[in-house]
């Protein structure tokens, strides 16, 4: 854990202001509360968030809030139990996730609770209006994500992508939408609100509208490898840098890697006639979303 905090501190010194804990499933980390407390104490961190499947939130939501976590995002692809089971590979029950969301809402995180939903054609697109209404009823923003070829194991096919335009049309079943300005440079979601309300939804269109050129995100795996893209083939071993060079060396390596990054996977995919690249990529459950 101490090595993670050292790397995070170096990143913050270089200008990073937002830190998100993802997975796999971050709520399974045995030192999660201590890690959150240490990251929250770093001078310069303005947004400390966590993405989870939500199952363990009934036990951990309040302790995480007290430790300094500001925001929680819960992955929820369907409210229907059968569709949820299909989207989650037969693991878990939607009732457990919904209980976790309720616990997170009750914990009163300073920056609230958000839902992320991946939309796959022929599976859960009919759930989109229901999920938007569910989030709005609880003052939660919901983000709908085009189905992506993250990693190499999900059998991704281009025809299974429900496009941003199609998601927009599904969301308008709940009422007319109006565009909201971006909150910060590099925000990946296009934001909307239902006209005449404060109910917000968002669409992340990594497939049909790639945003590689404005991406400001990097990822650190649990074993200390640094990735400059969700679709990267390999990462830089920072754990060895920490152990043999210390914080100053970590800062130098991070600066160099970021200045030299040239990741354009989503843009390149768009030029492959809608097919995914055949190259190997790190799995999403290894570096998070």
UniProtKB/TrEMBL annotation:
InterPro entries: Aldolase_TIM (IPR013785), MoaA (IPR013483), MoaA_twitch (IPR010505), MoCo_biosynth_MoaA/MoaC (IPR050105), rSAM (IPR007197), rSAM_sf (IPR058240). NCBIfam families: moaA (TIGR02666). PROSITE patterns: RADICAL_SAM. Pfam families: Mob_synth_C (PF06463), Radical_SAM (PF04055). Its cofactor is [4Fe-4S] cluster. It comes from Saccharibacter floricola DSM 15669. This is Molybdenum cofactor biosynthesis protein A. Keywords: GTP-binding, Iron, Iron-sulfur, Lyase, Metal-binding, Molybdenum cofactor biosynthesis, Nucleotide-binding, S-adenosyl-L-methionine. Residues 1-183 form the Radical SAM core domain. Gene3D superfamilies: Aldolase class I.
């Amino acid at each position: 854990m101490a090595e993670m905090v050292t790397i995070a501190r170096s990143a913050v010194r270089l200008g990073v202001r937002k830190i998100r804990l993802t997975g796999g499933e971050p709520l399974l980390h045995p030192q999660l509360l201590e890690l959150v407390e240490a990251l929250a104490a770093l001078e310069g961190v303005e947004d400390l968030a966590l993405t989870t499947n939500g199952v363990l939130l009934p036990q951990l939501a309040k302790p995480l809030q007290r430790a300094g976590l500001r925001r929680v995002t819960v992955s929820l692809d369907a409210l229907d139990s059968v569709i949820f089971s299909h989207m989650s590979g037969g693991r878990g029950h939607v009732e457990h996730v919904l209980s976790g969301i309720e616990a997170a809402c009750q914990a009163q995180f300073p920056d609230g609770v958000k839902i992320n939903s991946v939309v796959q054609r022929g599976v859960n697109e009919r759930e989109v209006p229901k999920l938007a209404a569910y989030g709005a009823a609880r003052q939660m923003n919901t983000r709908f994500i085009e189905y992506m070829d993250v990693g190499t194991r999900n059998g991704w096919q281009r025809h299974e992508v429900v496009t941003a335009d199609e998601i927009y049309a599904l969301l308008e079943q709940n009422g007319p939408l109006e565009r909201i300005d971006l909150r910060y440079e590099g925000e990946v979601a296009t934001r909307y609100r239902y006209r005449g309300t404060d109910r917000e939804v968002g669409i992340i269109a990594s497939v049909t509208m790639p945003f590689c050129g404005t991406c400001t995100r990097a990822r650190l795996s649990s074993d200390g490898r640094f990735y400059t893209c969700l679709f990267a083939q390999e990462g830089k071993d920072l754990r060895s840098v920490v152990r043999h060079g210390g914080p100053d060396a970590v800062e130098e390596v991070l600066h160099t890697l970021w200045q030299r990054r040239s990741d354009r996977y989503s843009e390149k995919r768009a030029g492959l006639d809608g097919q995914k690249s055949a190259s190997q990529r790190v799995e999403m459950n290894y570096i998070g979303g």
